[in-house]
Write a structure and sequence with these properties.
This protein is mainly alpha-helical and 249 residues long.
Amino acid sequence: MFAVFYEEKLITILMMLSLLLSVFTRIMIGILYQNMIKQTENMSTTNHKALKQCKIKFSNCYQLNNGVSNISIFVDKFLNKLKVGHFSYQTIYHLSGQLMLLSVFFAGVGVCKCIIGGYSLGAILPFYIFSFLGLYFYFAISAITDIRGRRRVLKTNLVDYLENHMVKRLEQAEEEIQETKVQESSTAPRRRQKSKENFVIELMPVRAASKLSDEKEGKEESETEVKLSHISLSEERELEELLREFLTS
């Protein structure tokens, strides 16, 4: 019954490969979302690279814009930018469905070739069976992974963390910064006054020393003046005595 698969090897390989890739990509996206959901349960100590980038971008946006008006939109943009290599999660999600349709397409090509080759209905029946089983398997995996549901859970966890935890921390940080600025502005004049007082205190001994030196210089000058006055008086007396002796002689 399945001998037609051996006769149409190329079509059979392409059909099975498309189905396996479709299921594999769906499971991969489900695992990635589930891992992120587990990491969001403890966002403060998470090691997930994408979630760390989300926190950094949110804090930068909050500080630059003085808040984030719509956090849900911010989270939607973040989720839309999640990538595996060069492909986003949404692209891989839609690619999974396209691969499933491609598998069904190859099955239809196999049926057409069998009909053209003159095969009986029983001979081409395996292609129909494979198509139905492949569709059932694909939708069963889709229901188990539940990509859309996991995306909603991830969004809810991120919005809850950003609104109820991250925003409060950023507000507290801003309040602390403002308090430190106020304290610095209030202590600045006190520091200036203290620096002036210290400067005056440092100048006091210098001024006192300058006054003492000035007083010493004044005393020395007065002493020299007194000495000079004594010398001039003695010289005058000697001149008077010489004149008297000269006149009497």
